[in-house]
Amino acid sequence: MQVIGKGYYLGGRSYGESSYISYILSKENGLIKGFTRFTRKKGNSLTALDHISFDWKSRDKDGLGFLNFDLIKSSKDPNHSFLFELIKASVSELCIKCMPLWQKNIEIYDTVKSLLNPGRFDEEYICLRYAWWEFLFLKNIGYGLNLNQCAVSGSFENIYYISPKSGNSVSYNVGKKYEKKLFKIPKCFKNADEKNNLNDSIEGLEITGYFLKKNFEKRISKLVFRDELIKKIRRT
Fewest C-beta atoms under 10 Å: which of 60, 143, 163, 191? Predict the structure, then answer.
């Protein structure tokens, strides 16, 4: 069978001297994995989240298949800082490790597209946008946090804490006496465009990191790029 389309290059790992096991995020087919060959003259010059066209071929959908692609638009930009490059690498890493193969997920595809075009590139803002992206990633992959209603009282007002056990939220009055066992909801989870500081984004990433590891423990024992990103944000 053959699948032709467009998507984002996520990365790959070496397989022999001139080959890769490559991963891409396709709008119509979700995460796709395939075997890619490179010549010595034309190595793999793609970087995380480059926009590409691709051609995947295999005898059946369960096979590894051969994956060829051509660059449409590079994700590199002179406005991008090293921090933003780490964000791109972390997005790719999470998609590869958490998304199932061949499962269409337009929501995740669209949030990646939006993240690549934040409109501003100051560090506080792009960290805020990335924390919001992880929040939406959990939701769009089926492990969303319920921040709309108090799980105990049913109230929609003054929602303040998140339970690490259930991912449900409670109001300030209900959760106050248990606050040492709960996460405080950061501003970046309430409004993606809210003005905030880096500490607020870090708090948000600590929460999403907790639920990512809780729900994907076997797949993400180590997130190299995400860990480096958190370290970089803390040093900023």
Answer: 60
